[in-house]
Amino acid sequence: METEILHISSTMDTDKIKKAANALQEGKLVVFPTETVYGLGADGRYQETVDKIFKAKGRPGDNPLILHVGREEQVEELVLEIPQAAKDCMIMFWPGPLTIIFNKNPDVPENVTAGLDTVAIRMPSHPIAEAILKEANIPVAAPSANVSGRPSPTKVDHVKEDLMGKVDMIVDGGITDVGIESTVLDVTVDPPMVLRPGSVTVEELKVLLGDVRMDEGLIQAHSKKLPKSPGQKYKHYAPKAECVLFGGNLSNVAKEVNRRIKENPHKKIGVMATTETIEMYQGADLLLNMGSRTDLREVAHNIFDQLRYCDEEGMDYIYIEGFELTGMGAGIMNRLLKACGGKVVLGL
């Protein structure tokens, strides 16, 4: 398949936006930027167009997708009802990095929802995504635009590496802002439950909704239960290198990482640290600064790009500092735990 690269620098590129929207309406696979990560989009109304997503990504069929909309009124056509909690969240956080799970309209294709009675929907805030979705005026199924299991793409070069020749069009809209996927909130249960943490934090949701729970499996690398949200099952976000996550007293973390570096002189080792600790590490082949612990949004923005960069530089091991499971830290740790596939050293 020949892949067209379409550079769109602003919403003023109306002809290009119409071209991308028309491609979606025609049943083609179109990659586009969102404020979180790049998404691999197809017309979410039909089983056959959605099937193309699973084939291009190599994605397991029991892993549900998120439908992206450009207008709130589209939600009414996809769900049985819009609970008050959802209405409040749509007013406060849409457009933005919050996915809401509803009881679905039976007309939503089964492969979108992995056969579940619920459907995940969000309205992205990236101006180019907004413009394309409004112009297409259809629900667009769109997981992250990467080969299944790889780190999610935050820039177009990541997309090209994984999907060039597998999709019809890639819209190049520059580097994404947030850097990790949207928060997923299930409003079909009482109280509402976060199934995937992201940049809309549990603390923010509690201010709006009161009682909000966290799914008990969020900090597990793998889950055996049937996933209701993307990212709840299978190894995700994983680099090619062996990845280990360390948590605890940061001084002890640095000592343990330095010990492992010294014991593996013939291995190429990358370390992902933070501004406050980066000078503690010695002997690594690649030392990357994820950002400051006082600005976890910066950290979230950088982690997928740095995981991919470690692979580009041929690292054998990647050692990563952990974070507290509060605020944005919950979303960062969820991604890092899955990237490490259970290789975790905690309590140092």
Molecular structure report:
- The mean pLDDT is 94.
- An eleven-stranded mixed beta sheet has the order 1-8-2-3-7-4-6-5-9-10-11, with helices on both faces.
- It is built from ten helices and 16 strands.
- The chain is an alpha/beta fold.
- It is globular and about 60 Å long.
- Helix 1 packs across helix 5 and helix 9 packs parallel to helix 10.
- The longest helix is centred in the last third of the chain and has 17 residues.
Short description:
With 348 residues, the chain is α/β, with parallel strands linked by helices. It has helices at 14-25, 47-57, 84-93, 110-113, 127-136, 156-163, 202-209, 250-263, 296-312, 328-339; strands at residues 4-7, 30-33, 38-43, 66-68, 98-103, 118-122, 140-141, 169-172, 183-186, 193-196, 213-214, 242-246, 269-273, 286-289, 317-321, 344-345. It contains ten helices and 16 strands.
